[in-house]
From TrEMBL:
This is Sugar ABC transporter permease. It is a multi-pass membrane protein. The chain crosses the membrane at residues 23-44, 56-74, 81-98, 104-125, 132-150, 170-193, 224-243, 249-270, 277-295, 307-325. One of its GO terms (molecular function) is transmembrane transporter activity. Keywords: Cell membrane, Membrane, Transmembrane, Transmembrane helix.
Length: 331
């Protein structure tokens, strides 16, 4: 009689080390965020007050809105350096347009910043130029347009429409309207990324663009759309920020693109493309907001210290991604 032996474990079975590594990559930002919330609660009495938590949520929502668009871009294997300048430009255009009503205040930055994203996407998709170079040019062009509209930053436009101002300044239970707008955008974006063919195309292009093209994925069209979305959301975030501040402040947004990229990468999206999730991006944005708030709570530390902490987090995350990639290849 022939002796039967149990079948060997499938090659796709993940060992505990790989499972732990994947968990840290996907949910590391959320874990660190939870730890910092506990630390803040223990260390500062005012940290968990509704007003302070609402301030963190509202302040983080602008970064999170831009980061949602950046997540699509990075998953597709690209990068968008223009979002910081588009954020400022969107705020200036919104404040300028508010004299004609809330519809113009919201529509004008969406049209202009969306046009920037569309043109950048077309150039990247049709010429196959490096996204870094194209969006760097977009950064300079958007900043130049903003400076020309504000007389080299000497003119600050004030928000003149009360309805538009309430969109940025209104709140529910101490949480500003921009946070709820961000949640609505997140819900829609998550459906498109996870439940539609477009989202699968984004992942496929980031994983291997040539293979995606051979499978019939509309590479050029998908790239154009992701950069269009990135431009639109940067402009929207700028408009909401102008509504909150009641003016189109020209000094904000300098270097914001780096904070956006940090939030996306800290949230678990690979800079090389092909992997990532919007939930991690939001956790990364909130994490940076909590760090800034804790620095303010400590006192004696300048706000620029946040850049040091964010840079350290980003370095750790990139190294961790490298190590986790090696673990998956070994298994």
């Amino acid at each position: 009689m022939q002796t039967t032996h149990p079948a060997p474990p499938m090659a796709t079975t993940r060992n505990p080390r790989e499972r732990a590594g994947r968990l840290l990559q996907q949910h590391g930002a959320l874990i660190v965020l939870a730890v910092l919330l506990v630390v803040g609660t223990v260390a500062f009495d005012s940290f968990t007050t509704p007003a302070n938590l609402g301030n963190i949520a509202t302040a983080s929502s602008f970064l999170a809105i831009i980061a949602i668009g950046m997540t699509f871009v990075i998953i597709s294997g690209g990068i968008d350096l223009s979002v910081g300048s588009l954020f400022v430009l969107g705020g200036v255009l919104a404040a300028y347009g508010s004299r004609h009503g809330a519809a113009v205040a919201l529509g004008l930055p969406l049209v202009v910043c969306g046009a920037f994203g569309l043109v950048q996407g077309l150039i990247i998709a049709r010429t196959r130029m490096a996204p870094f170079i194209v969006t760097l040019a977009g950064l300079l062009a958007a900043r130049g347009l903003m400076l020309s509209l504000t007389d080299e930053g000497a003119t600050t436009y004030l928000v003149e429409d009360d309805l538009f101002a309430r969109i940025g300044q209104g709140a529910i239970l101490d949480v500003g309207y921009p946070f709820f707008i961000m949640l609505a955008i997140l819900a829609v974006a998550a459906v498109f990324l996870q439940r539609t063919g477009f989202g699968q195309n984004v992942y496929a292009i980031g994983g291997n663009e040539d293979a995606a093209a051979l499978m019939g994925v509309p590479v050029a069209r998908t790239k154009v759309v992701v950069y269009l979305v990135s431009g639109l959301l940067a402009g929207l975030a700028g408009a909401l920020n102008a509504a909150r501040l009641s003016s189109g402040v020209t000094i904000l947004g300098i270097g914001l693109e780096l904070d956006v990229i940090a939030a996306v990468v800290i949230g678990g999206t690979l800079l090389t493309g092909g992997a990532g999730a919007l939930g991690g991006t939001i956790a990364g944005a909130l994490l940076l907001g909590v760090i800034q708030n804790l620095i303010n709570q400590v006192g004696g530390l300048t706000s620029s210290f946040q850049q040091v902490v964010s840079g350290a987090f980003l370095a750790v995350v990139v190294v961790a991604h490298r190590i986790l990639g090696g673990v998956r290849r070994e298994t």
